Predict the 3D structure of the following.
Amino acid sequence: MKLILLGPPGAGKGTQARLLADEYGILQVSTGDILREAIRDGSPLGQEARPLMEDGRLVADQIVVGIVANQLNAKGSEADWVLDGFPRTVPQAFALEAMLNRRGAVLDAVVSLEVDDSAIAERLSGRRSCPACGLVFHLRWNPPRTVGRCDRNCGPLVFRPDDAPGTLLRRFAEYGLLTAPLMPFYEKRKLLARVDAVGEADVVFERIRSVLGES
Ligand code: AP5
């Protein structure tokens, strides 16, 4: 199973990628999580990505393509995976296609999580993340066991800085301009499956399983 999850900020890509990874024992590759970890570590990658992410802009294609290539190469061509947050531009999609062709591997499906603006606003305003381990919660839909604290005992949860209204506007603009063109890109390749992503996470997960022919 080689899958891509597409969708605007807050659509639930990370949430569904984790459920898919757990259910099928496949690798979850989240470029956003990897970049946030690099920022936490203060690595050269983190230093380069930080100002862009804080501004709601995409990180350069060659950097994220390199990240994904490293992750997939480490696992070998037989590995199954779900990509969450990549590709995000048409050049990234071509780079992934070339990577797969070189390995003789094929993409099984690209799942587009379709949500309305009010669901996105509710999800992002209620999202709280652990800055230490990256675990994601929601005040209403996925609350931590202890209010304001990570379930792994890392410490206090925070509102993601790039969810602030000004930055969020830029992320949506980047999505519309650079990521939305991936829909026709994958539709043309007959890989795109649109899934209604409004509803509780386990309900959405069942819809994804159903379009994958797994239920
Ligand atoms: P990234 O971290 O990928 O951000 P994003 O795509 O904007 O997506 P989000 O993480 O905001 O949301 P999500 O769809 O994963 O939703 P989640 O599951 O958390 O990227 C951040 C930045 O990194 C980018 O702006 C860019 O700078 C850089 N970057 C990353 N990849 C890049 C790339 N390929 N190229 C260039 N730059 C890149 O859910 C949101 C909330 O809702 C959570 O609280 C969750 O608990 C809750 N929730 C989820 N599903 C449901 C549900 N069904 N019902 C109720 N609540 C739900």
Notes: Strands lie at 2-6, 27-30, 81-84, 109-114, 127-129, 136-138, 192-196. The mean pLDDT is 95.
